[in-house]
Amino acid sequence: MPTPSRETAERLDRADPLIALRERFSLPEGMVYLDGNSLGALSVGVPAAVQTAIVENWGRHLINVWTEDGWWDVPLRVGDRVGRLLGAQAGQTVVGDSTSVHLFNVLTAAARLRPDRRLLLVEEGGFPTNHYLAASVARILGLEVRRVPMPDMASTLRRLGERVAVVTAGAVDFRTGELWDVCAVTDAAHDVGTLVVWDLCHAVGALPLTLDADGVDFAVGCSYKFLSGGPGAPGFVYAARRHHGDIDQPLSGWHGHAEPFAMVPDYEPTPGIGRLRVGSPNILSMLALDAALDVFDDVEMTAVREKNVALGDFFIEAVDAHLAGCGFELVTPRRGDRRGSQVTLRHPEAEGIMRALNKQGIMGDVRPPGLLRFGFNSLYISYTDIFTVVEALRSCT
Ligand SMILES: Cc1ncc(COP(=O)(O)O)c(C=O)c1O
Ligand SMILES: Nc1ccccc1C(=O)C[C@H](N)C(=O)O
Question: Domain locations in the chain?
Fold first, then answer.
């Protein structure tokens, strides 16, 4: 590999089979947007879709939108579209509430499926909301939470065995971008009869997922990162079909009822994934997500993955070549197959460096302790963007 340069970046862009997809996103002129792992860019089809939903559907059909326009079933229809990206057959994914709400619901439901077990394992270093919610579930159900580093998760499961009700972890570490082996941890859990709840916020839309094939029990995630659903877009929840009949979720709202319009006082969950619905969803946001998902109809996730691994490789090689001695430490694994779609660098001056990048129109973010995160969305990031960032990092250290 020659030393990464602007010329190599431009050559790689010319050979990039996904480069044309950039036109499907509306990015400010001159901005290099490497924060799509926090909030995805606006997909050009979204404003018109939301405008139509407001003016044509809501504006003209009023209450009948729920039936005539099929809005009652949008959480299931869009759920299946997300499910396809999860490697899930139809009828196992629903969109509706935030990741946090879905996580609370399925952690509780999963723990209730293992009533004789008292331990809840949570990935150490996982996203804070996951810790906060696991602690709450533990208080409600009288469980004990143990924080476990991901490299030790499988061996810990083997050691603690049948004491563990549920294990929850993110497929990709939100700080370091490290990708964990979903299948191996799921197998280790199942070997001792433990259920798994995966958080796919940083994985969905970035890499091919195979939840059905991996035998995953439950998964949750958001749609505002790599799926570009928009700020506060509804998250999704997956539950393997084999669990549907037994799920007892704590937020037993009327949208999950078998006959919501019977208006009866007793809760009778609908068969199937619909029982994970709660109350009236944020439908306009859901329709924005629906429009944003169109781009995934025209692209293979293997191609998306191939490109984000290559973008990460190019970034790491350029950092090695041009930023040696500038105080950066790579905290993301070098190996492409052990990374998600982000690369993180540690630097003692991280905050100041990011402010300087922002002034040059480059967007990434900073997470404690001193971590500069750069997300690479294959649908709209080019090799030239990556080289621009590395040059800017050099100029501000
Ligand atoms: C891994 C992970 N889990 C959960 C969340 C929280 O999701 P929400 O705010 O949609 O509930 C985020 C990001 O905010 C995240 O990165
Ligand atoms: N939803 C947000 C709203 C405001 C600012 C950031 C977020 C994030 O999503 C943070 C992200 N989950 C992270 O990986 O840090």
Answer: 6-30+300-395, 49-297
